Amino acid sequence: MKPGRRQDGHLPLARSELPIDTVALARYLIGKLLVREAPEGFVSGRIVETEAYVVGDAAGHAYRGMTQRNHSLFLERGHAYVYLAYGVSYMLNVSSETPGTGAGVLIRALEPLDGVSIMQLNRGVARLRDLARGPGRLTAALRVDRSLDGIDLCREGPLWLGWCDREPGEIGQSVRIGISRDANRLLRFYLRNSPFVSGPKSLAEQDPSLNK
After folding, report:
1. How is the chain split into domains, by residue range?
2. CATH superfamily of 15-211
């Protein structure tokens, strides 16, 4: 048990332990926890899928520079960048570089752990596998919205990143989902054989490590 562990067994990630590199952080976050502390209760999930949006990435929101909307992407690594996609679903990203450098990691899917009944109520869905399988689903399940944009994810609060005692398992890699720019870059990371990963199974066929 790590020093300072909470009574619920979870411990926030220290910023010093986060890689100062977007791709490395996207891989590092696989197997870690995303924790939501809301008035209705404590909710957490194991991160099983991420996407890296690196410096200079044409598909990233930081590509054209800092704006009032995307300024959280330019914060020190470990802060939340939350935006509304297509006026429908919120997307949760983690800032991933040094202050002033815009890049981030999209959290794409979770394996629900704590507060499953709360997630089911928030989503209006009972099936465990579908509660947080996809970036819009997971933000709905955890009630993540723009009010959490810019929050420090490396300290306890309404939303934070934490350690998980379980080993992360084998990590796969593929192209990202649902983008048209820089679409062929292998910047999506996922926990292999997890039923909670989003996207078509055919993406796994593009994993270069499987062909070695």
Report:
1. 15-211
2. Methylpurine-DNA glycosylase (MPG) (3.10.300.10)
CB atoms within 10 A of CB 211: 7
Residue 165 burial (CB count, 10 A): 11
- Render pLDDT for 147-196 as a digit per residue (tens, 0 to 9): 999 999 999 999 999 999 888 789 999 999 988 888 889 999 999 999 99
What would the two tokens of residue 82 be? 């939350």
Nearest in space to 77 (alpha carbons), one of 59, 64, 89, 94: 94
Q: How far apart are CA 139 and CA 132, in angstroms?
A: 8
Residues 6+ apart with CB under 8 A from 91: 82, 83, 84, 85, 106, 135, 136, 139
In the chain, which residues have pLDDT < 70?
A: 1-9, 201-212
Pinpoint the alpha helices (H) of the chain: 22-28, 116-123, 135-142
**Beta-carbon contacts of residue 108 (< 8 Å; ≥ 6 apart):** 49, 50, 51, 134, 135, 138, 177, 188, 190, 198, 199
